[in-house]
Amino acid sequence: MERSAFELEPIPPFRLDLTVWILRRRPDNVVDRWDDQVYRRVLVLDGEPVEVAARQLGPVDCPRLVVELAAKRLPAGAEERAGELLARMLGLGVDLTGFYRLAAGDPRLRPLVERFRGAKPTRYPTVFEALVNAIACQQVTLRLGIQILNRLALAHGLRHEDGDGSYPAFPRPDQLVGLRPVALRALGFSRQKAEAILSLVEGLMAGSLRLDDLERLDDAAVQERLRALRGVGRWTAEYVLLRGLGRLHVFPGDDVGGQRNLRRWLGLDGPLSYERVRETLEPWRAYSGLIYYHLLLQRLAEQGVL
Questions:
Q1: CA-to-CA distance for 242 and 255, rounded, in angstroms?
Q2: Where does residue 104 rank: exposed (0-12), middle (13-18), buried (19+ CB within 10 A)?
Q3: Burial class, 140, CB count within 10 angstroms (exposed 0-12 / middle 13-18 / buried 19+)
């Protein structure tokens, strides 16, 4: 087993624990793991499954991350590539000064933001992973969606194995090539979801679909591209804008859990329509996605997870 270690310096304030919970969302997530001190995930670097373990040293206002890598063979440049992916996934380079300044002068927002100070906006390492997560979680509970994604990773992800166990990476498109919809249905995906994911894989492998190009497009163009894909509607497209592309002004307006969390936070009566969500968030429009994340943390705290 080859090992390596290096350090990263997030823009403060930063709390690894809160940030990881935004990423993993549920305690039974087998891809993004957390033991109350160390965040672990298997990343595939140059075809090699590499275990990444990150621990925070230093307080919220002077944070450092110690990162350890382990693999049967560490690819050349593994530290640099792992550092880039962690920075993306954990929002290490995102400066939230403007958000904190806004919250300081807002009596409704301030208690929420102060409670979770140091939480950073997370992103999936790839847009493909964001899309598959979104498709899996369409019209089911988040708990069930995570369970289905766990099965997908355990069945088809490359694994890092050490003396403590065997841990899966999230599958890449090339690992799903050639699967029939029945294979994904056996994991809990509906027929429509299975066909949507395999259509996505087919387009990526054939080169007729490029997701990397989305980074440079504005929101409307991204939504147009995404909604042309099989099985992708408004909620999925907005989910990918926030969790895949880091558009922090996007609150997925059709998100039932997000609507519920927003209603509880502000003490609103009755269900929220998509339009009412947008109207409600207008005072904080530039940071609507950050509010989405903070409300997720608040809900996790109410459930006793944090």
A1: 12
A2: exposed
A3: middle
For residue range 60-118, list pLDDT tens digits in order: 999 999 999 999 999 999 999 999 999 999 999 999 999 999 999 999 999 999 999 99
Instruction: Determine the pLDDT at residue 15.
Output: 98
Query: Domain limits of the chain?
Result: 2-115, 127-243, 256-302
Average pLDDT, the chain: 97
| Size (the chain), residues | 306
Is-same-fold flag (2-115; 127-243)? no
Segment 251-262 shows an average pLDDT of: 96
Beta strands in the chain (DSSP E): 2-8, 33-34, 38-45, 48-57, 64-71, 159-162, 165-168
DSSP string covering 164-226 = TEEEEPPPPGGGTTT--HHHHHTTT--HHHHHHHHHHHHHHHHTS--SGGGGGS-HHHHHHHH
Q: What is the DSSP letter of 305?
A: -
pTM score, whole prediction: 0.95
The CATH code belonging to domain 127-243 is 1.10.340.30
For the residues 201-220, what does the mean pLDDT come to? 95
Domain boundaries 2-115, corresponding CATH code:
3.30.310.20
Q: Is 90 exceeded by the pLDDT of residue 271?
A: no
pLDDT at 42 over 90: yes
Helix axes 234-243, 127-137, angle to 10 degrees: 140
Residue type, 212: D
pLDDT for the residue numbered 221 = 97
Q: In this structure, what token pair is assigned to residue 111? A: 């208690």
**Helix (H/G/I), strand (E/B), else coil: 121:** coil
Confidence at residue 261, expressed as pLDDT on a 0 to 100 scale: 96
Separation CA 102–CA 105 (nearest Å): 6
Give me the residue label for tokens 């969606």: 145
